[in-house]
UniProtKB/TrEMBL annotation:
<protein>
    <submittedName>
        <fullName>DUF3631 domain-containing protein</fullName>
    </submittedName>
</protein>
<feature type="domain" description="DUF3631">
    <location>
        <begin position="223"/>
        <end position="406"/>
    </location>
</feature>
<feature type="compositionally biased region" description="Acidic residues">
    <location>
        <begin position="34"/>
        <end position="47"/>
    </location>
</feature>
<dbReference type="InterPro" id="IPR022081">
    <property type="entry name" value="DUF3631"/>
</dbReference>
<feature type="region of interest" description="Disordered">
    <location>
        <begin position="1"/>
        <end position="47"/>
    </location>
</feature>
<dbReference type="Pfam" id="PF12307">
    <property type="entry name" value="DUF3631"/>
</dbReference>
């Protein structure tokens, strides 16, 4: 598509928007000092940084957001903002270093997952539906101008260990395609010549239950819910609704195309780090290009939704849940230097909301606990207890590095280890 003259409301050239205040970032908190928490009566409180002026781009995003909300009830306003930005980001894929996945998951049928995918199909750049499509067909369809992959009923691909094992190549393709310049090599032709195929493309996957951890970790996660009584949406009718969605899609593409180079050069302030920052960066850049209230709302959505996924991860027994629960036990025991294995297991099982009392046939065992902690380089040993005796157990200081790395965002810790976990 050839670049066209910007609409009357768009700003030519590179937009220099005012710096947006990002919660938790250096430079946005009051300086520490003896009276840092005190505001003199005659001194007004610091005013919030105003949003940049709206542009034609922000008007397009507002229109897209309203269109999505007509047909689907998203779990939060932040999720609605994230979906809107993700759709717009598909029209700038050549600019991105990372291709964020959109994981649209729900606990049961009729949560709106497929309906959201219907709307995405008519608004993203070059949609490619991958139901029953082989990985070979997918990576042979990816070019320098990649399509947007759309996978419905992803639970039929990854829902059980047997299904996941059968579709390991598709999972590998989706994992590799999150980052630019990750290729798969296959032999082609009668002479079996090795050929590299690109994998980089944005993708949306919808299904019941969580997707494999490696895909969720590369995704903007939308956790859908079934509509409650009194909630209603507009029925989606192809003949009536698709023309309007296509018109909006084309206007977004026309706005975005002249901004490719600018989008590729931007390095925005991010409220998160590491892979979460890689995944959310295209959405934040789209928001900064659009201006208006979108830069602020995008960062709020990013911080809030990433934090929610970190907490959800701690609730998964196979992830950092065991570390978080052990930290709660040590806090409840007034940060003792060590606990015997038997005492630690007993206290873990006391938490009625944890899985440890019903883990396996007789609850979590010492051998299973040791196997879980071994991946974090934590091993049991001889420890001296408060009564002076020595027993097999765990020292608190052996957990400090793992706690800092794998479960840093515990907002509150229960003093009673038998009480429900806080996160």
């Amino acid at each position: 598509m050839q670049p066209t003259t910007p609409e009357p409301h768009s700003a030519p050239g590179k937009a220099a928007w005012p710096t947006v205040a990002v919660p938790g970032r250096p430079g946005h908190a009051p300086e520490a000092g003896p009276e840092a928490d005190e505001v003199p009566v005659d001194q007004p409180a610091e005013e919030a940084v105003p949003d940049p002026a709206p542009t034609y781009g922000s008007e397009l995003l507002n229109e897209l957001r309203a269109q999505v909300a007509q047909f689907v009830i998203l779990p939060s306003q932040q999720a609605l903002d994230a979906v809107t930005l993700w759709v717009a980001a598909t029209h700038l894929q050549p600019a991105w270093q990372h291709a964020p996945r959109l994981a649209v998951v729900g606990p049961a049928k009729r949560c709106g997952k497929s309906r959201l995918l219907d709307v995405l199909t008519e608004t993203v750049h070059e949609p490619m539906l991958t139901i029953n499509t082989t990985p070979a067909a997918v990576f042979r369809s990816i070019t320098d101008e990649p399509p947007t992959l759309l996978v419905d009923e992803a639970d039929t691909i990854f829902g059980t260990p047997k299904q996941a094992e059968k579709n390991e190549e598709m999972r590998g393709l989706l994992n590799a395609g999150h980052q630019r310049n990750r290729y798969v090599t296959r032999v082609v032709g009668n002479d079996h010549t090795p050929h590299r195929f690109a994998t980089f493309a944005m993708a949306a996957l919808a299904g019941i239950g969580d997707l494999p951890d490696t895909i969720m970790d590369r995704s903007v996660v939308i956790r859908m819910r079934r509509r409650a009584e009194g909630e209603s949406v507009k029925p989606f009718r192809s003949r009536r609704d698709i023309p309007g969605l296509h018109d909006l899609r084309d206007r977004i593409a026309t706005w975005a195309r002249p901004l490719l180079d600018e989008a590729a050069d931007l390095e925005p302030d991010m409220p998160v780090e590491d892979r979460a920052a890689d995944t959310w960066e295209p959405l934040i850049i789209v928001a900064d290009l659009a201006a208006g209230s979108w830069p602020r709302r995008a960062r709020e959505a990013c911080a809030g939704m990433v934090a929610a996924e970190v907490e959800a991860e701690e609730d998964q027994p196979g992830e950092a849940r065991i570390l978080a629960d052990i930290r709660r036990v040590f806090v409840a025991q007034r940060e003792v230097d060590s606990l015997s294995t038997d005492e630690l297991l007993h206290l873990l099982r006391q938490n009625a909301e944890s899985p440890w009392a019903e883990w396996g046939r007789n609850g979590l065992t010492a051998r299973e606990l040791a196997a879980m902690l071994r991946r974090y380089d934590i091993k049991p040993g001889n420890v001296r207890l408060a009564d002076g005796t020595q027993r097999k157990g765990y020292m608190r200081n052996k957990f400090l590095d793992a706690w800092r790395r794998y479960c840093p965002t515990v907002h509150s810790v229960n003093a009673d280890p038998a009480a429900p976990a806080s996160g």
